[in-house]
Structure formats: structure tokens, C-alpha cells
Amino acid sequence: MGNNEGIRKILTVCPYCGCGCGLYLHVENGKITGVSPSRSHPVNKGSLCVKGWNAYEFIAHPDRLKYPMIKQNGAFKRASWDDTLNFVATRLDEIKKKYGPDSIGILSSAKCTNEENYLMMKFARAVIGTNNIDHCARLCHSSTVGGLAAAFGSGAMTNSIDEISHAKVLFVIGSNTTEQHPMIAMHMLEAVDRGATLIVADPRRTKIAEFAHIHLRQKSGTDVALLMGIMNVIVNEGLVDIDFVRRRTENFDAFENVLRRYPPSVVEGITGVREYDIRRVARIYAMEKRSMLFYAMGITQHITGTDNVRACANLVMLTGHIGLPMSGLNPLRGQNNVQGACDMGALPNVYSGYQTVTDPRVRKKFQMAWKRKLPQNPGLTLMEMMEKAYVGSLKAMYIMGENPLISDPDLNLLRKALERLDFLVVQDIFPNETSEHADAILPASSYAEKDGTFTNTERRVQLIRKAIEPIGESKPDWEIICELSNKMGYKMNYRGTYEIMEEIALLTPSYGGILHHRLSDGFGLQWPCNDIKHTGTQYLHRKKFARGLGTFITVDFMPPDEPPDSEYPFLLTTGRIYFRYHTATMCKRTAVLEREEPESFIEINPDDAERLGIRNRSMVKVSSRRGEIEIKACVTNKTPEGIVFIPFHFRESAANILTNPATDPSAKIPEYKVCAVKVEPLHRPQKIRRIPSVDLEALRIT
Question: What residues form the membrane-spanning segments (predicted)?
Fold first, then answer.
């Protein structure tokens, strides 16, 4: 904290993406008036992206939820905290007694702090008595958590962000890094300036692809085949790190048997990537020790998302590119605290620290600490909760800091599912599409109005600090959860978030040495940090994997669930854009971000557009088997022929009305990256009327 002519500067963490940039909130007369970057922060090093520079404006926006509300006769009425919490507690108790604890589902939040996610997880299990708790990681990186945990024993980025600029080869697959993790992209481009080779695999020509030395444009949904082809070359050309494979891995022989089915010539036919480029990438990646592999939702959001992640894990083990600085496998997490929400056990099968609910020894530990008998079977995932709500067996939901009516697939079906609930309570900082269906709304405080910690994508646990008092009658999420728990008869009282973190450290081995007072100096600690003498872990799996030996898990190519056909001839892929963030509740209340990207669009290749008679910026109708939207066309070579792209942030042209709810069988993540759609111009361009030529000589008066 510093002082400058009455302006206080409070060091905290950006509330947007998983980079976890350090910034100062400028506070004057109890109001936040601006933001400046931390010059010495290891991630952003004195820089911020456009969202970071504007991360203060939404905090005091007039739309903020300022007091609790209860819906009466179809309209929300202001109510006191006491009345609202009594109402929520009574209804949840009634439903629990009538239908059982598993008739209630809870969504925690990747935007909230670790302490709040831990308490929400505790509330679900100790107060309600269900493991039905999940959050939006189900929609973005659940395949990472499962895939890497099975291969390595830990589902997180293996390296640190400040190692990136010293790497020699950067292989980025399925990540629009410059738009979604701008500060990580900054480190990548610094590495390129120092001579590193950048390889990008992405069907779209994204910004990061424009900087690439090699851009592989595989067909959407063929990542397993592409990675198997690269590994086939590595094995056949003797580029395997044999010593690493022998000493530190298992199950190589079974993996190699499957790998033989993917020679580059076959892979070219599946992926559309030239055999020559597959060989070239395999050699460049395998022969440089300081090679880092990055991926994001282009890999995870498929029905084969877990297999895609396993294939990435196999590649780094095959070449021994793991367990060293500047050498590893790095999933780039999307939201500011999605890593932390997973770490805190806001998932249906694990407590904090990924300790499984089915392990009797672990369950006994939590039962003793919480003094409650806990459910022993894994709960419902987010997608399963919505399915159960639709058929009527899930009766109530408590949603904190999530907006599924924009973020989830097949929105028309989802809306019906929420309408069929007996009771819905939403806790958030702004009204949103989901809260319109709530029976009660609990106003929460923003990141600037509370203390706690966020964990960024490189496992760095950092303090956020309260800069101003909560807006209106809003309260920090952790206080709301505690008060509701007390109303329901389970005592949950903490003097501050530091006490919650002490409980987390006590029960969570990887956070055992992470306490607030240890985070107040410097820029946090990277887990695993097992005790109070531990200084954190810069990179994972140094001498052995978290699970002992790394496991080669055999994977095989499987086509997408809904490929294009004659009725729906285009492949739709969805994603994010630079000026928007998730369901846009904060971005659309920020003038600069709203000005730069005020409306949605569909990217379509010029050849496809010409064939359909679609002009740039004209309106088109896009339909799938689940619904249709009207949207403005953006004719561009970014997207290859046969593929169209729509960002998912916008309510007015919600891409998720179209998307396919088919899920990965293991991680239950939806296949956002592939579904079949039809594109039609809304207004046919007028035909150009030919003007008859005039013979001027014939008109000459002689």
C-alpha cells in the first residue's frame, strides 16, 4: 500500500484471466478511480492487457446488485438479509427433507476466492450432505484435471510463466494465447525475439498463429490423430528419450502398439496437415530440450478432450520434455481462479487438494475436522445436474458466481431445466440471464471489496486485498455462505479469510505451507508447498511424477459427435475474443471493452461467403439441430473453408443456443469446438443489373 496526495494504491490480483497479473487499485475518497500494473510482478512485469487496465470500472456500475431480493408473484422485491437467508435456508431444508440431499445441486465459482470455494465445497458436503458440487471448470478444463492426474498424478501447468521467454521451442496447440492469455503471449513473443521457434496448431489463423514459424491447420476434432502422427515420427526416427522412458514411465509397449497405426501419410488424410509438416514439427520439437508444450480449450472442449490431454502427456514423456525448467506441459487455465476452484475441491469427486471422496481414510479426515458424516459417492457434474433438473429429479440449485444460461451448451434445453426447478438461489455481483429465473438473489461483493486468495494458471497462490467497503448491502461470498450455514444449523464462523486458509492448509497437503501471512510479501507461493518452511515449487515432476511413474495411456482417434452433413454443412467452433471475458457480466459494463466489441459476429471464409451470397457485415441466420440465431457476418481468411467461428459471450446472438451438449465420457466436458450448422443470408444481395452499353457513335448528330 502506498500514498500519493490522498490516493491509496492497493496491491491485488486482476480478476480476469488465469494469468494472475499483479495490479494496484487506486482509491480516492472511498472510490476506485483507476488501475496501474505492478512493475516487478513475475507475470505481467509492468504491463496489463486492455481488460486489466479497465478492471476497476465495473466495480461501482449502477447495475450492481446492492441488496437481497426475493421473487414474489413473478417480480423481485427488496428484502432484508435476515429474511432472505431465512427464506433460502427454509426452502433448502424443506427440499432436503422431502427429496433427500442429492436433490440439491450447487455451483461454485472460478471468479471467487480459494477461501470461498473451499467454504462452498464444505457447505455442499457438511451442510447439505451431497457431493453435487461443480463449477465452470467442467466446461473448460475438466479433461485436463482427469487426463493429467491419470498420467502424471497432478492436473496443472508444470512450469512457471517467467520460464517461457527462455525456452527454445514453443508448441502451442488449441490456444488463442494472444487474445485469452495476453501476458503469457507476451512471454512467448519475447522468446521468439530471442530466437525460439514457435509452432502453432489451430484450424483458425489466430493472432498467435500469425507470429508462428509453422502453423498447422488441422481439421477441428482431429488433435489425437495429429499428436499420434508426430509421436509416430519421433519413434520411427529414433528421437525418443529412451533413458527417460525407461526410468520414469510405464506402459510404453502398449502405447507403441497403437502408435504404429498413425504413420504421417495416414494422419495427413485424417487431419489435412501435410506429411512434410508433421515430420518437420516432430523433429523440431523432439530435438530441443528446452521445448514447452501449451494447450487450452481447443484441446479440452471435445468429446475426446481427455484423450487429447493424454496424447499431449504422452508426447512430453516420449521426448523427456518434463521435470525441467523451460520444458514441460502447460494447460492454460481460463478464468482468474479456475485453478484454485479445482484445488479447493469444488468438484463432485474430490475434496480440496484432489483427495477423493471415495477414499475412506480421506473422508474420515474431513469428517473429523468438520464433525459431520459425509456422503461417500461422487456427486453429479454440472452437465448431469442440468439433465436431472430437466427430468425433474434435481429439485433445487444454489449458484454462486456462474451464469450457465450463457456459458452452457444447448441453452434452449437448459432454460427449460432451470424453469423446472422447485427452487433456485443465485449469488452474484450483477443480475444475469440465470438470475432472471431465481427465487432469491444474494448480492455479493466484487474482488475489490474483500480479502482472500486467487491461484493463477501456474499454481501461484496470491493475496487479493480489500480496497473499498462493499457496495450497497452486498457481502463477500464467504460471509454469505457462513451466515446461510448458521441459519441451517451448522456452525460456520471465521474471524477472517486467513482463518479459512488455515483450515485449508490443515486438510490439504499441497497447500500445507500456504498461509496468508506468508503471502503478504512478494508475489505468492506456487503449490505444492507442503509446510511452512517450503518456498513453493517452480516446476513440477522434477525427479519423479506426483504419482510415481508417469503412465503412457493409449488413445485412439475418434471423430467428433456431430460432423457436418448435407443438412448442416458447416462445422461451428466457438471461443473467446480479446475484449470480452466469459459471460460478459463485467466486460459489458466497461466502456472501453463495450466500445471495441459491442456485438457478436460469425467468421466465415470468403469462398463460402461468395457461394452463399453473404457480404461482409450482412446479417445471416445460423441454425443447428438445437436452435437458431441471427448474427452479423465477418468474411475473413482467419477461418478455413467449411468452418465458421462464433464467440460465445453475447446474449443477443448466443452461440450456445447452437452447440452440442454431447460430452467426453470421462470428464463430462461438452464438445463446444465441433457441431454442425447451416448458414443462410437473411437478405439476399440484390443482383447487379447490367446497364446496356451505349454506342456513342450512333448518337452522334451529323
Answer: none
